[in-house]
Write a structure and sequence with these properties.
- Keywords: ATP-binding, DNA-binding, Nucleotide-binding, Transcription, Transcription regulation.
- Pfam families: AAA_lid_14, HTH_8, Sigma54_activat.
- The protein contains 27 helices and 19 strands.
- The protein is an alpha/beta fold.
- It folds into four domains: about 55-215, Beta-Lactamase (2-Layer Sandwich); about 215-310, Beta-Lactamase (2-Layer Sandwich); about 340-505, 3-Layer(aba) Sandwich (Rossmann fold), CATH 3.40.50; about 510-580 and about 595-645, Helicase, Ruva Protein, domain 3, CATH 1.10.8.60.
- Strands 2-1-5-4-3 form a five-stranded antiparallel sheet, with helices on both faces.
- Strand 4 (about 160-170) and strand 5 form a beta hairpin.
- The longest helix has 26 residues, at about 190-215.
- It is globular.
- Bound molecules: adenosine-5'-triphosphate (ATP).
- The site of adenosine-5'-triphosphate has 19 residues, from helix 15, helix 21 and helix 23.
């Protein structure tokens, strides 16, 4: 048989058996439909060899970013779900609408089984790739599905037991899939149906959070025929604009109102569906914010109980303001992170999730402002009054990280004079713990940190009593942590524990607010004094520079320039340093320093300057500590500071 023929006509004995069973009462309808698609639409072979498609880290990250804040909300719910089914050999998995696994929590005992079953981040579980399965089939059916052992179309997947439920978008499309899968199961169908109920509930909860957050700037009417269900998982949701037009409804609203499609509701005026025009809605929200309003729908006269949520940021009454989530009361601060749209998006998204205690992972090159951003999130949180404690895992010698982080009791070391130490984790309790350069944390300590994050308690070195801690964690790294996980140098479980959501900080050269940043940094440089002005040519050169060292490098260039131009001077090109000189024309003489045989000018020199600046800043401009970490004498360090015309802060 030719290859072309075998590709279009599955020919194996198993294929014929499956075909024969489709439509019989022994096979569940959704399984039969899926087998039919696999055999007749995708021409798949049930007994083909496994060839799991796995996307690379960059593609996975791009998909995770597309999910935006939903990923963080989903992750928090996945952890809840996992806790409920932990110990039963399940993994909780989230995929996007193309069945690409984007997040997973796996039973550590069964990790190997899941890997060999192809269930890991980046794997593509669409029906076209893997046949009938919990993720791909839930997408195709747009409904929760169980796929039990031999119901999997591919023979090699027959050891799996999967429960997948779609997370529906506000327009009713599939946004993602939540799935609980066991790689080798002794569960019965009964146990599986219990798991399915939990998965469906969690998927609904995530979709509901997504609806409320997506329409945070609209009115949302919440209703149900049973008063006690309003505000809970199964409530109907209807988003309404300020003209009283229905923007979106969830599936529960369609069912409650006796409709069969979204189109029957979306776009209509609220007053054509319920006896309530927009003015009445506003008035009721203002006068009776805490009561449920009984009403009957216009089409069928069914009785409902309703309540409305005003657009966030719009306070209808004092009591509503008090009930609004704390994070909504703190405006995102452009002043703190700059006006670049990506940074603003990061701030809005991070603020919402961090306020709900979702751990944040910041990824960005050195000097992009990760710590500044973390502080902005802390400042916007409801625990802003509590401490912000930063730990730079790359700056502390490996031998000291453990005691720095976890603390030690008095007498824990042979040095009897040494007092106990609380440790950074306990210091941050109630406030924010910022774990900078988390990729540099030794593997052994990663395990210990994971335990603290899971158990919310800490045992200091030398101690035997666990102390409870209340942690809100932001971590940061310039390494690609997901790539480190794939390379086995960073613990996967810790990665997911820290990564409620990843926010990517753009490099300075891509930011659209460079002019604003320059003005801010110059103002900061002079404190209360008059900030130096800057001429057009210098500004132009600063705006077009590639800035390999990002904002840190910009700050240092401006600091030097401000010092050189004098108290009332104006920064010009001549104050910016060698790397801002225009390229010399061919045949012109070499730069003076090169001619003298000094260090090479250009990239190497810039790299040395950047490295020096980085270390100095990291050590808070302490010359002895910087010299020690660089492994040079203080005199050498001073010489280099002079050579690079680095100005020490006053
Ligand atoms: N929006 C901003 N406005 C003014 N200064 C900023 C801003 N963002 C960052 N900076 C400055 O840039 C420098 C680097 O910032 P920060 O230490 O937060 O970067 P980082 O990404 O954490 O660096 P590293 O990866 O080296 O730890 C600091 O001097 C900081 O004050």
């Amino acid at each position: 048989m030719s290859n072309a023929m075998s590709a279009s006509q599955p020919s194996s004995r198993i294929a014929s058996l499956l075909q024969a069973r489709i439509g019989t009462s022994q096979v569940l309808p959704h399984v039969a439909k899926s087998w039919d698609r696999c055999l007749n639409r995708y021409s798949m072979e049930p007994d083909a060899e496994r060839r799991t498609v796995v996307l690379d880290a960059a593609s996975v990250r791009a998909r995770q970013e597309t999910m935006g804040e939903l990923l963080g909300v989903a992750r928090a719910e996945m952890e809840n779900l996992y806790e409920q089914i932990a110990g039963s050999g399940y993994a909780v998995i989230l995929s996007d609408a193309e069945a690409v696994v984007l997040s997973a929590i796996t039973d550590p005992q069964a990790k190997r089984d899941f890997r060999s079953a192809g269930l890991w981040v980046g794997a593509v579980w669409s029906e076209q790739n893997e046949g009938t399965n919990g993720l791909g089939t839930a997408i195709a059916e747009r409904a929760p599905v169980t796929v039990y052992c031999g119901e999997h179309f591919r023979r090699y997947n027959a050891g799996l037991s999967c429960c997948g439920a779609p997370i529906l978008d506000v327009d009713g499309g599939v946004l993602a899939v939540l799935d609980a899968s066991a790689a080798s199961t002794s569960d019965t169908r009964l146990v599986q149906s219990h798991t399915m109920a939990l998965v469906s509930m969690s998927a609904n909860l995530i979709a509901r959070c997504h609806f409320l957050s997506r329409f945070r700037d609209a009115w949302v009417l919440r209703f149900h025929s049973r008063a006690e269900f309003v505000g809970l998982l199964h409530e109907a949701l209807m988003a309404i604009d300020e003209h009283g037009c229905i923007l979106a409804v969830n599936d529960a609203a369609i069912v409650q109102l006796g409709m069969s499609t979204r189109e029957q509701l979306v776009g209509r005026g609220i007053d054509t569906v319920l006896p309530l025009d927009f003015a009445a809605l506003e008035q009721r929200a203002a006068n009776e914010p805490a009561t449920l309003w009984p009403m009957r729908d216009i089409a069928y006269g069914r009785r409902f109980f309703a309540n409305a949520r005003a657009p966030q940021g719009r306070r209808v009454t004092a009591s509503q303001a008090a009930a609004a989530p704390a994070e909504a009361q703190v405006a995102p601060s452009r002043r703190h992170v700059g006006g670049d749209p990506r940074m603003q998006h990061n701030l809005n998204c991070g603020r919402q999730l961090f306020g709900r205690r979702v751990p944040i992972l910041l990824q960005g090159a050195t000097g992009t402002g990760k710590e500044v951003f973390a502080k902005a999130l802390h400042r916007a949180s409801s625990w802003a009054e509590k401490p912000f404690v930063a730990v730079n895992c790359a700056a502390i010698p490996e031998a000291l990280i453990e005691s720095e982080l976890f603390g030690y009791t008095r007498g824990a070391f042979t040095d009897a004079a040494r007092e106990g130490h609380m440790g950074k984790i306990r210091q941050s309790s109630g406030g924010t713990l910022f774990l900078d350069e988390i990729g540099d944390m030794p593997l052994a300590l990663q395990t210990r940190l994971l335990r603290v994050l899971e158990e919310h308690e800490i045992v200091p070195l030398g101690g035997d009593t666990a102390i409870p801690v209340d942690l809100h964690v932001i971590s940061a790294s310039h390494h690609d942590l997901l790539a480190m996980v794939q390379a086995g140098t960073f613990r996967e479980d810790l990665y997911y524990r820290l990564n409620g959501i990843t926010l990517e900080l753009p490099p300075l050269r891509e930011r659209t607010d460079k002019r604003e940043l320059i003005v801010t940094l110059l103002r900061e440089e002079r404190g209360d004094g008059e900030p130096p002005r800057i001429d057009d040519a210098a500004m132009e050169r600063l705006l077009t520079h590639p800035w390999p060292g990002n904002i840190r490098q910009l700050r240092n260039v401006l600091r030097t320039a401000a010092a050189l131009c004098g108290e009332r001077g104006r920064i010009g090109l001549e104050h910016l340093g060698r790397e801002f000189e225009l390229p010399r024309e061919h045949g012109s003489s070499a730069p003076a320093e090169t001619a003298r045989g000094d260090d090479a000018a250009g990239p190497l020199r810039t790299a040395e300057r950047d490295a020096l600046m980085h270390e100095l800043e990291r050590m808070h401009w302490n010359i002895s500590r910087t010299a020690a970490t660089l492994g040079v004498s203080r005199n050498t360090l001073y010489r280099k500071i002079r050579k690079h015309r680095i100005v020490l802060p006053g």
